[in-house]
Amino acid sequence: MTAPVMTFEEVRAALRQRFPMIMVDTVISLEPGKSIRTTKNVTGSEIHFLGHFPEHAVMPGTLIVEAIGQSASILFSKTTGTGMQLGEFLVLGAINEMRFLVPVVPGNTMEIEVQVLKFVEDFALVEAVATVDGTTVAKGKLGFARRGLQGNNPPSAPRG
To answer: For the chain, what are the domain ranges?
Structure first.
């Protein structure tokens, strides 16, 4: 197996999220402005499995979307070249055509591929596919915007 492009420590440094919300373990490929491939090792010790579901643990779809969002966030920061500045973060603005096709369970390694459909200043539209052992488990399109905390937001995108 080849070494990751970004280790867990580098991923953690690139993201605003902290335990228990870090949903990306490594970056296995990255082409700024185009695509990123990441991994998420799903383990039974993750806190959400206490209640989803106690009898048969299944990773919540919302956390699969979160893993896609975090992958997109890393891609966005590496594409803009500025990273995320203090007080900034990437917010999810739209989820389109999201499908959950196969349950993700502890012991799975989810691979997430995010392709850029469009970048416009501080906005991005991406298409993502999550797989486990080559089987598609989820796919969809998501929209993101860079935003600042406490009203420190960049200008709105032009309407058209």
So the answer is: 8-148
Gyration radius from the chain CA atoms: 16
For residue 14, what are the CA distances in angstroms to 3, 6, 24, 93, 151?
18, 10, 11, 20, 22
Active-site choice (12, 52, 139, 141):
52
Q: Which pairing describes strands 135-148 and 123-132: parallel, antiparallel, or unpaired?
A: antiparallel
What's the CATH number for 8-148?
A: 3.10.129.10
End-to-end CA distance of the chain: 46
**pTM for this predicted structure:** 0.87
The answer to whether 147 and 159 have CB atoms below 8 angstroms apart is: no
The two tokens of residue 141 are 């399109």
Decide if 48 is catalytic. no
Band (157; pLDDT cuts 50, 70, 90) = very low
